[in-house]
Amino acid sequence: MKKLIIVFFAFQCMVLTSCWHNHKNISFSYTSNDDSYSMDAWFSKNKTSIAERYMNEKIGKENNISFVNTLTDAEFTLNDGSKFYMQKSPGHILIKMNKLDNSYEHYHKIQEMCKGMKNVVLK
Predict the structure, then answer these.
(1) Whole-angstrom Cα distance, residue 19 to residue 63?
(2) CA 123 to CA 43: how far, in whole Å?
(3) What is the pLDDT of residues 64-111, one digit of tens each?
(4) Alpha helices in the chain (DSSP H)
(5) What is the pLDDT of residue 25?
(6) Among 17, 19, 61, 64, which residue's Cα sits nearest to residue 44?
(7) Residue 90 in contact with residue 45, Cβ under 8 Å?
(8) pLDDT attached to residue 23
(9) Which of 112, 119, 121, 92 is nearest to 37 (CA)?
(10) Considering the entire predicted model, what is its pTM?
(11) Rounded to whole angstroms, how far apart are CA atoms 70 and 49?
């Protein structure tokens, strides 16, 4: 019986350690082809506000949009005419952009923001 209790306790410790470790994982994936561009970012929930402020600085201020403390699952059209889809929750940001609906300049601006976000979150 004691062995069973020890094994059960050890298993619980491994599960808890695994959960804590998982919150520190950071994953950024970028996909680009002829028609679309996307970024799928997963990071610690406590880095969300840093990512939100970065997005405000890059595209929010000039478009009178704030990404701070928001849950998002919507299509955005910025003042310059660029369009993209964003799904955002604590620790996760997904951005998808149809290149055919946007000029190269608009696409490049969103792409640069997405690539820069990784550096901001890693700090």
Answers:
(1) 38
(2) 12
(3) 999 999 999 999 999 999 999 999 999 999 999 999 999 999 999 999
(4) 2-22, 48-55, 104-122
(5) 83
(6) 19
(7) yes
(8) 47
(9) 112
(10) 0.79
(11) 10
